[in-house]
Amino acid sequence: MTALSEAEPSSASILRRTTLAAAIGNTVENYDYAVYGFVAAVLGKNFFPHATPGAALLSTFAVFGAAFVVRPLGGLLLGPVADRLGRKPTLVVTLIGMAVVSTLIGLLPTAETIGIAAPILLVVLRMLQGLAAGGEYGTAIIYAAEFAPANRKGEMAGRVQMGSLAGLLIGAFVVVGLNLSLSPAAMQSWGWRVPFLLALPLGAIGLYLRSRLGETPEFVAARDHTRDAPPLDRRVWRGLLLIGVAATHAVGFYLAFTYVQNLIIQLHFSTVTATAVVGCALAVGIGLVVAGGRLSDRIGRHPALLIATAVILIASYPLMAGLTAASNPWLLAVCAVLLAAGPSFYSGVAPITYVELFPVHARGTGVALAFNVAVAIFGGFIIYVTQWLVQATGDNRAGAFVLMGSAVLSGLTALCLHSVLTPRTPRHGAPLAPEPA
């Protein structure tokens, strides 16, 4: 047995452990976001009780977007920490912040108890959650990619994105379970608090996993060599490219997996049906995320991005039309799953693209800041904007045009990546570096 083959089990174990620990923070982050979206109608009644149902829902989505406004600030604060102190301490801080804030939302008094202070406190907590999330996603995908062998970096970064979908899926299961177990009155009274409170044990599990991590080999190597920051024009250009790539990632993710759930409810299906349908889309989407990352390792990042954006551009409108016209849950589920397929595949390719746009010593700041600017623009208020378009035009298919617009922008950006990113990696990458002490 060769030395390389003897090292492989250890390397595989390290790779599994690091990707799991990196992904679990995104699971907690998106679990929190999913729960908020899935119980948006209940939150609207508890925190905006005097508004009409439509206005209450818009207000709840506006609070949802508040977390995204401050995400660039979170990236600006925590990205440099990842570059100077390391990936691991940043991952620990962000996970604690998200789990604690979500728990506080679950304990928050409603407007019936404390009046106007209730929605104000909800906004404050959502913004604190956004600060923590601003350093989470970028650092997690960087961590996984920097530990992976050269021929699996896309796959491993994509697996962190799987954690994001898994968080939404867990949130969907929890909300469906509560709706099946509790009466509407109990769900309105106290049941909505339960999923937020469950973020604390999820965070504790993640904290345990992350406390056992070492630092990435690429970060350790870069830390030992002083390098000047890339020229400002290069950083700005690559940041703009990342924002363009992230447009479809953000729009597709929140539209397919959060907005669609509320759209189905507006089509007069039950909350349980709506959440179960989105759960099906998430389950299929997890597999497509892995497929996207793997394909990007084989053919390159920008060809994989172009394939995904072309599919989204062609398929979004007919699938949204089919979803809004569906007369039974089975047809509804098929349309929702197919509508989410393109964005899911795309979100498996995008993470490694972000990582490879910046050198190691500037990667934490570059990815965190640019990605969170993109999410603030294209993710935070996309649900609000789409809902507003539906109400303003009376056309419940308006979300398709939003998704198609993002695909055009990201597709044009992908055409610019050929001269920026390195060529595709060889089929057999370098062996994984040993775990640091």
From TrEMBL:
GO terms for cellular component: plasma membrane. Residues 18-423 form the Major facilitator superfamily (MFS) profile domain. The keyword NADP does not apply. It is a multi-pass membrane protein. InterPro entries: H+-coupled_symporters, MFS, MFS_dom, MFS_trans_sf, Sugar_transporter_CS. Keywords: Cell membrane, Membrane, Symport, Transmembrane, Transmembrane helix, Transport. The chain crosses the membrane at residues 55-78, 90-108, 114-144, 165-184, 190-209, 236-257, 269-292, 304-324, 330-355, 367-386, 398-417. It holds the Pfam family MFS_1. It is found in: Cell membrane. GO terms for molecular function: symporter activity. May be a proton symporter involved in the uptake of osmolytes such as proline and glycine betaine. Belongs to the major facilitator superfamily. Metabolite:H+ Symporter (MHS) family (TC 2.A.1.6) family. This is Putative proline/betaine transporter. It comes from Amycolatopsis bartoniae.
